[in-house]
Amino acid sequence: MAVSLRPLAAEHLDDLTPVFDDPDVLRFTRLPVPPPPGYARTWLDRYEAGRLDGTREAFAVMDEDGRFVGLALAVDIDREGREVELGYIVAPGARGRGVASEMLDQLTRWAFDELGALRVTLIIDVENAASSKVAERCGYVLEGVMRSSYLKDDVRVDAGLWSRLPSDP
What CATH number should be reported for the domain holding residue 22? Predict the structure, then answer.
C-alpha cells in the first residue's frame, strides 16, 4: 500500500483518539492505560517540542486517498551519537494491508537520509509477533531480548532490541 509521511500536527488530533483507545496499541506501546483526558494534545505537544529541539519527530501516515492510517515515530533522536529509536502504530482499521512495512521502510530511510543516522533501533514487546515480523521484513536484525526492560503500569516486559545500519541490505 502506498502511504506518505506528513509531520504530525493539530489537524490530526481527532485521528489519534481511536488509535490511543485501541487495546493492542495500549498493550504494546508505552502509552498510559487508560490515556488521561487530553492526552492526545499533551502527546502532540511533546513531539512538537522534540521537533523544535531535534530530539524526536512524529509523522501522520496517510494513504493514497488522504486517510489517516497510522503514526511513524522517531521516539528518541541522539544527534551526537547518530542513533535513532523508531516506532510505528497502525490505525486499527488499516491493519493487514502492508501499512506497517511501508511506513517503517519510509521512516527508516528518513532516519538514514535526513538525520544521517548510523544506527536505527526498534524496541518491540516479545509478545507482539506482528510487529516483530514487520521489523524482520524491513531488514532489521534482532540483537537480543532485553528482559524486564521497561515499566508501564507496574508491569515490566521482555522486549526485543532490533537494529538496522546503513550498510545492511
Answer: 3.40.630.30
For cell 488499516, the residue is 94
- For residue 9, is it within any domain? yes
> Structural domain of residue 70, as residue ranges?
3-120
CA-CA-CA-CA torsion sign (109, 113, 119, 121): negative
pTM over 0.85: yes
Q: Is 7 inside a domain boundary? A: yes
Residue-level pLDDT, tens digit, the chain, 169 residues: 799 999 999 999 999 988 888 888 888 888 888 888 888 999 999 999 999 999 999 999 999 999 999 999 999 999 999 999 999 999 988 888 899 999 999 999 999 999 999 999 999 999 999 999 999 999 999 999 999 987 677 778 899 999 999 999 8
SS3 98: coil
For the chain, how many structural domains are there in total?
1
Cell of 99: 501499512
